[in-house]
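Bit of a strange request maybe. I'm writing a small parser for structure token strings and I need a real example to test against, not something I typed by hand. Could someone generate the tokens for this chain?
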Amino acid sequence: MIDYAWLIAPAFLAGWVDAVIGGGGLILVPALLSAGLAPSTALGTNKLSAVFGTASAALVLVKKVGAPLALGRFVVIGLLCSGLGALLASSLAQEIMRPIVIVLLLVVGIFVAVRPHFGQLQQGRKHRRVLLIVLVSVISFYDGIFGPGTGMFLVMAFTACATGDFLHSSVMAKVVNTCTNAGALVMFIFLGHVYFLLGASLAVATILGAQLGARTVIGGGARFVRIALVIMVIVMATKLGIDSLAGGAFT
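Reply from user aminoacidic:
Good idea to test on real output. This should exercise your parser:
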């Protein structure tokens, strides 16, 4: 464990990023790989750390901001669909997923950029219940298979179909993202791809980062979430594009 002590800083930063908008895996998973873990073990260990960090951020946000929707059905969807995605992850090449996700990220970024008021005002939006269930199911399944951008896609889904407000959507996205992490983690444990001692140790740093991130979101409000979303779109699309050109994994 002494050899892995340097991973505390990446875990803390990953917790902060996950709490703000999502995408902490782009920080911690490469660090785990550079520490010598196998790709599947790095992914599983990251999920163990991430589930605690995201859950702690969700608790803070729900307490401080509140959740405008009953989330029971979305909790179940997140658990089941992400677990199924993790089970099927090995059968779907990342070379197929990367260009699709890059396009989706760019669409999200352009949409937010050209709609300056989207996500910043309570718009009295009609709750598109069926569409939201479908979107959460697909995004949860995607988190189990591949993962980058899950939190961001959930924020967009809840904003477009339910709240019209990035801040309240972030609260719901954190709750559901906790469940997608948990569902995928169960499958990684079943497949034997989790380094428990390391993951539990890094979870402490991830929780601390997530606590700071949750308070950053509360202090910055919807405008801050909007800026963070655009920045993460650029970072994720660039990272995935470089990985595609290099022929490597997204991590």
